[in-house]
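Continuing the batch. This is chain 6 of the set; chains 1 through 5 are on the previous pages. Same settings as before, nothing changed between runs. Recording input and output for traceability.
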Amino acid sequence: MKSIDLIEKEAKDVVLSVLPNINGEDLSDSSNLFSMGLDSVNAMSLVLKLQNVFDIKFDINDINAENFQSVATIVKLIDEKQG
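Output for chain 6:
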């Protein structure tokens, strides 16, 4: 199981790879990813990449706007999945 700090760093890297117009300085833990350009197409890419990087499987109920709103909500979800 990965530490919260490592989950956060790796999740940020994945988010930045999906949102290429955003740089690391612009992305805080609480930044709203949807207002930064996340849409339904790249959200699915984000879900798939997170599942691969963290070797987890999100349930259908996990895939919603609340869980993928920010890096902080993504980290919380991944931590629960690894729990």
